[in-house]
């Protein structure tokens, strides 16, 4: 459990942080408050604080002064800076003091808990000390690298603002002319397998090890800096910086470094990976273009002929784009099959598509990813209509494969097929359980409706639309339950009612016909004869007490 101290002279901000923090989820058992820097320093000396949130602008002892003292007196303390000023001069001391993160006022829930999670993760990693390698580098991973990562991401996402962030450009070497920047994207093809087998299911520890391998042997005139992609958990982004020289040299060194990193990851940890690399640019703002090229190159790698450790260069020739058959058009059929409980038939339909993709000559990693996402969305839409959304997805933070509890590793087309079948199994099981629980009530409701509305024009589509069941499946269920098809049952109810009404001599056959929903007396008479082998008039003559 951890102890947190909030040091801020503004009571509303302290209160907001207290409310917004996910303290229980983070393992924080005590949150203390200090009204200014002096009080905060005294509390740091009095209590064993793990994480301190420090406002940079406070009376008497301000944030910068407090950080300088804390750096010497409390070297193990993790610091998160809060500032209303996005200014390099104001946060210079924060960088020197190796703070975990920087929060701008007003603080929002996501940014706060993200910063706290980083601090808690660092505390846990440091306490584990699983290897001398990690212990030696953990401190460096607490400060400037996080700021560099944010800067690179803002450039890649094209949200970087020169005026407010220009002072930070020296951190990434973008203030010196003659530098070249290239981007590589590395995809871990067996992430879950390695995370469980080699890193005891510790995701952060694995991420740390991977980034250190990619960054290894860089420095001097050529540097690599990597981090986990926020867009895809299986992918890492690597920024290659070459100081001086020519663009061709930067391209060669970046490609060579990527291939060496892929080989090392396989050798040290058994990590199978593939990568894409973009062209180098002299303007750091073109990092975004290099990333787009690297990502496109990675996505274009042919899954049918994938080789572990392959790195596709953006300038290379790309295979022609082919349209892959879409599952969307066949989902109504798959839905009907799932409702009937025929899992094997559903898998055979899925197998038809995977067979088409496999014989198409080219099926890219990007197409595989899009297919998985599309398949989950389509099945989830069906599950929502049938009230059968998998429990792990109901209100959970995790979505997609992780939300379904599926590893999602694939380094071959066969493994990709296994992922699709696993997804189908999860939804099939949930849909089957849901339908089994609701089927009885649905059939009873339909029967009761017919019993009370037999005189109306009853169509099966009324029930298929209401209960989101296919026509064939619903008719099959109803007949199995009541030994009549739905139309047959409507006819039975009408004919039973007709016998009761005909026993009243005061009612005319025309009136009875209309009461039963027949607008044509002759049609009613024909239907009655077909059902009882006699006309309504003949039936009346057979009733006791009727004069022959």
Automatic annotation (TrEMBL):
Q: Where is the HTH araC/xylS-type domain?
A: 444-542
One Pfam family this sequence matches: HTH_18
Domain Response regulatory, which positions? Answer: 3-120
Tell me where in this chain the PTM 4-aspartylphosphate is found.
55
Name the coiled-coil region(s). Answer: none
**Keywords annotated in UniProt:** DNA-binding, Phosphoprotein, Transcription, Transcription regulation
Q: Which InterPro entries match?
A: CheY-like_superfamily, Homeodomain-like_sf, HTH_AraC, HTH_AraC-typ_CS, Sig_transdc_resp-reg_receiver, Tscrpt_reg_AraC-type_HTH
The cross-references to SUPFAM superfamilies, in alphabetical order and at most eight, read: CheY-like (SSF52172), Homeodomain-like (SSF46689)
Matching Gene3D superfamilies, A to Z? 3.40.50.2300, Homeodomain-like
Keyword Transit peptide assigned = no
| UniProt-recorded Gene Ontology molecular function terms | DNA binding
Q: Which PANTHER family match?
A: ARAC-FAMILY TRANSCRIPTIONAL REGULATOR (PTHR43280), HTH-TYPE TRANSCRIPTIONAL REGULATOR EXSA (PTHR43280:SF2)
What protein name is recorded for this chain?
Answer: DNA-binding response regulator
The organism that produces this protein has a lineage beginning with: Bacteria, Bacillati, Bacillota, Bacilli, Bacillales
